[in-house]
Design goal:
3 domains; five-stranded antiparallel sheet; 7 helices
Length: about 400
Amino acid sequence: MSTRISTGMVFNQSVNLMLDKQARLMHLQQQLATGQKMVTAKDDPVGAGTAVGLDRALAELERYGKNADHVQNRLGLQENALAQAGDAMARITELTVRANNPALSEDDRRAIASELVTIQDQLLSLANSTDGSGRYLFAGTADDTAPFARGGGQVTYNGDQTQRRIEIAPETHVLDAVPGSEIFMRVRTGDGTLDANADAANTGTAVLTGFGRAPGNWSGERYDIVFTSAETYELQNTAGEVIRTGEYRSGEDIVLEEGLRLRLEGAPAAGDTFAIGPSETRDVFGTLDRLIGALQMPFGSPEEKAAQQNLLQSSLRDIARASEHMIDARAAGGAQLAALDNAQALREANAITFETTLSSLRDLDYADAIGRYQIETAALQAAQTVFTQMQSMSLFDRIR
């Protein structure tokens, strides 16, 4: 077998060699100019695909970070609003305790009621707080309109009960601000489980001073203690049926076999009723309305004083429970803020890992690239020298 050699073939080989060297040099120049190892995806198809996936992961981390910034702003504003509401509730408690002082005049109590009206307006304003972008904090997902409005002598809630779950890291979510219905409206009365109250129509001087659980199995039913005289009473169920009768002594517990007890002081009148049973729910504003109404009641006769005392004692219990309810809401918000901090640390750690991997895939090793550039430059120069020398050569010189 023989190989045919021609002048054209030799020239073409030299030209192709120089073009190849020039292409390599141009590629190295692009790498050195951009600092990127992969100028095009064909340089490393597998690495390019991996890099695109890492870019997407970094973009997701950035989106998570924006979500976290938004919800952190709202939770921080919720914390501020609830802190102010807690201070307001503490002032209400202080004023209520002061109002229980029998030495206060009717004018003093009306002055306290006037301050309570101002605090109530402050609480309503806090309940309608916004996040700085026009969205209401305590409206749930219906946050484009004010959630609380006063009308018909009461405050109503116009938001919804939905609490957003916001993703702030891969498979990590936090809850947005708590809907106002869960903070200001659905507050358990009494001790949160059990409550007792004097009937507003009572005409005696008996004051409810305490209640609680007693030995026995309470079924969760409500009972009425209806006095038939100043010293005797009937225990009735919700159907009005008489379960038993008993004798009353001022200052002593009335213990029910059903597992409940309550204590009265004073002299009840025939027909006076005291109820004990499961706690109901009442909004904070309604509790304040009851308290303000109690302070504006006449305070002359012993019967009027007893009626006012019963309302003040009930309001004081409900205000204490509302204060605890707000503290619980603040604690829940604090837990979400702590979760935000943990998620930020996770995002930062993941971002560093992704960026390190991307750097190993994309970033150019300048020392290696410069070395290869010098080698390719020398090789191109050698190829050009050989080509120059070959230009003066011809196969016809060999056959002369």
